[in-house]
Amino acid sequence: MTTQTADEITKILKDRIAEFLPSARWEETGEVLRVGDGVATIYGLKNAMAGELLKFQENVYGIALNLETDVIGAVIFGETQKVHEGDTVSLTGRISEVPVGEALLGRVINPLGQPLDGKGPIQTTKFRRLEIRAPGVVQRQPVKEPLQTGIKAIDTMIPIGRGQRELIIGDRQTGKTAIAIDAILNQKGEDVICVYVAIGQKLSTVAQVVNTLETYGALSYTIVVSATASDPAPLQYIAPYAGCSMAEEFTYNGKHALIVYDDLSKHAVAYREISLLLRRPPGREAYPGDVFYLHSRLLERACKLNESLGGGSLTALPIIETQAGDMTAYIPTNVISITDGQIFLESNLFYAGIRPAVNAGISVSRVGGNAQTKATKKVAGKLRLDLAQYNELAAFAQFGAELDKVSMDQLNRGARMVELLKQPQYQPLSMEEQVVIIFAGINGFLDTIPVSKVREFETQFLDYLKKNSGAVLREIHEKRDLTDAQKELLSKVLNDFSNQFNIKS
Predict the structure, then answer these.
(1) 39-44 and 71-76: which strand pairing?
(2) Which of 76, 151, 190, 413 is the most exposed place for a label (fewest CB within 10 A)?
(3) Strands 126-129 and 97-100
(4) Whole-number Å distance between alpha carbons of 454 and 448
C-alpha cells in the first residue's frame, strides 16, 4: 500500500514537471534620487516613455515628464509623503489613462477617476488616455449647430456652436462661472453630456456648484472633475486632460458633449510650479516655454466630428481670470489666440447691475451666425450695432450736449435693450422665448415703458404669450424660423399686452 502511494506521488510530480513552463517576468526598475513638492528625480528607467505611468512603492503612482540622459523627472499623484529617497520605481508600460463611461455621470471625482462624493466605487471597465492627438482637418466638419446657453446676451450676440471653443474671460467675481453653470443647466433635455472641471478652486466653491447642479436637476447628465486648491499641483495639471478624455468617450460615440475648464489661469500656475520644480528653464512671467502648447493641445481636442466618425461634438468653454481687466497678459493672450472667440465680462458693468456683465464691443464669436437658428438671426441681426451706437451716444450725452430727437430715441431704446438683456442667474431661457423678447425690444414695443418696468414686462409677457398664443412659441421651436405670419401675430399679441400693461402701470 505504501509503495503504491509513493509511485502515485512520483507520477504526479513527473506530470507536473512535464507540464511546467518556465516564465520569467522582466521589469525595469529605477531608484528615487530626490523627492519633494510632488516631484521626484529617478535614476535609471532608460526605456521610460513620455507620459508613462510609473509605480512607486506603497502603491503610489506618477507620470514621467522629463526624459533626460541618466535621470527622469516625474510628478507624483496621491500621498507624496510615502515616497522616499532610495525607493524603487518600476515602469508599467502604460501611458497615463483615466476611467470613462456612463458610470461617471452624476458623480464627483478627482482627476484619477476616484470618487469624492461618498456614493461608492465607480463601476466601469473602459479607459481612455489622458492625452491624444487632436482630430485633423479631414476628420472634422464645420461648426453649424447651435449650443444654446439660455442667456439672451450670448445666444443673440455671441453665439456658441457645437464643437466650438469659446473663452469666458474677466476679472474675479464678474460672473464667469455663473455663465458656464447656466450653459450646463440649459442642456437639460438637449441630450448633451456636460463635464465641469474645477482647477484650483476652493472646496466650498466646488460643493456649491455641485449643489446647484443637483438642485436644478443637471447633475444626472454631468461629471464633476475636482482638483481643488488643497490638491497637489500634479493633480491640478492633469485635471483638464482627464475631463476632456471623459467627455471624448461620448463624443467619439456620436453624442454631444460640453466641457467647462474653470479655470485655465490656475492650470497654467500649477504647470509653472511643476516645471520650475523639474528645473525646466523659465520664460516670460516665469512660465515654461511650452505653456502655449499646454493649452493648445487641450483645446484643439474640441471639435465637431464628421459623419463617418459619428458626427459627435465636443464644445469647450475655457475660463481665464484677468487682473484689473488686462487682456494683454501672457496667459489671456495665449488662450484668446487658440479659441474661436471670447466672452469678455467687465467689472464696471457688473457693479453697475448689468448682469451678465458681457461687454458686447470686445466679445466676439468667430463662428457667428453659423451657430444661430434662422429665428435668432432675424431678430438679433442689428442688436450688436444698436448697442454699440447706444454706448457711444450715452458717453457723448454725459457731457450735457443737446441731442436731436433721433439721438434721444436711440438713447431711450438702447437703455431698454440693455435692461432687457439683463438676466437673473440660474434662469436660462429657451430659444423661442429669447426670440419673442428681443423681437419686442427691437421693434419698439418697450419704448413707452419705463426702464424700471422692463423686466416686469418681460416676465408677464412670456406668461401671457404661453397662456393665450402658445402655438407661436411651439412653431418657432419646431421650425427654428420666424415667418412673416408669425411676426404679424406676435406684433398683434404685443400690442394687446402692451395696452393692458400700460393700464396697470
Answers:
(1) antiparallel
(2) 190
(3) antiparallel
(4) 10
Bridge pairing between strands 71-76 and 88-95: unpaired
Residue type, 208: Q
Q: Which of 94, 129, 297, 366 is catalytic?
A: 366
Residue 292 CA to residue 422 CA, distance in Å, equals 35
- Note whether 247 and 314 are within 8 A (CB): yes
- Please state the φ and ψ torsions of residue 305, each to the nearest 5 degrees: -75, 155
Rounded Cα distance, 474 and 497, in Å? 19
Task: Please check whether residue 150 is in contact with residue 429, taking contact to mean a CB–CB distance below 8 angstroms.
Answer: yes
Report pLDDT digits (tens) over 47-101: 899 999 999 988 899 999 999 988 999 999 878 889 999 999 999 989 999 999 9
CA distance 233 to 225: 15
pLDDT for residue 275: 95
CA 68 distance to own-chain centroid: 35
Contact at 8 Å (CB) between 93 and 111?
no
Q: Tell me: cis bond preceding 332? Omega within 30 of 0 counts.
A: no
Cβ(412)–Cβ(471) under 8 Å? no
A 10 A CB-CB count for 383 gives: 20
Q: pLDDT tens digits for 119-140? A: 999 999 999 999 999 999 999 9
Residue 284 known to be catalytic: no
Per DSSP, what are the bridge partners of residue 75?
39, 63
C-alpha cell at 471: 402655438
What is the side-by-side strand order in the sheet with 364-365?
108-109, 222-227, 192-199, 256-262, 313-321, 167-170, 341-345, 364-365
Alpha helices by DSSP H, listed for 192-285, are 203-215, 233-251, 264-277
Helix (H, G, I), strand (E, B) or coil at 393: helix
